Predict the structure.
Amino acid sequence: MNRRDFLAQCGAGLTASAHAFDVAAQSRTAPAFQLVDVTAAAGLQFRHNSGAYGGKLLPETLGSGCAFLDYDADGWEDILLINGMDWPGHKRQRSTLKLYRNNRNGTFVDVTREAGLDVEMYGMGVAVGDVNNDGFPDIFVTCVGQSRLFRNTGKGGFIDATHRSGLGGRQAFSTSAMWLDFDRDGFLDLFVCNYVRWSAEHDVFFDLQSNLGGGRWGVGPRQNRRSRGL
Ligand SMILES: [Ca+2]
Ligand SMILES: [Ca+2]
């Protein structure tokens, strides 16, 4: 190959690369699908409550999770949304997780109360699994405080099985969990992830706005914040 042929091939290669780049760029700017916000049209009116009142507690910056599950085994995915709640001493509203049943026509209906899930807790995440192999998915909600296991009755509702299942009496900052059959005996086992050892009293306080004039960062244990009358 002489120099002229070599340069000609390089030029052809560059042209092909540029064309491929143009196609790739166009594919990035023009996706083959569109996502449309149908939340309200679908009947979902959920609003998450972190409990924030100005105390800036760590759990307010996390959560909450959600899950698609066919809780009534009708072949249509339903929606479970985990919620937080107001902190003790700062009660302003009642907030619970929400279960929306699929109406099979693109809309959902709130069945939280009739499903027995109208329960307040500071929820973080959720793991769905059929713990008793009855064909109906059960729910484990990780919480700040006591996490909760809800067993599916198979009749359109759930019952709180936290204590009878041996999962009671465990206070933690649990963020996520998963069901797995780690010993392959045919029954799901539970793996729970705890975040940090936390309490409202020992939460580290950080405030920039109120300290701009003083030239200091407002960092310190929550007790110090209380001593400042905030
Ligand atoms: Ca369903
Ligand atoms: Ca079950």
Observations:
- The two ends are 81 Å apart (CA to CA).
- Residues 69 and 84 are 20 Å apart (CA to CA).
- The longest strand covers residues 171-180.
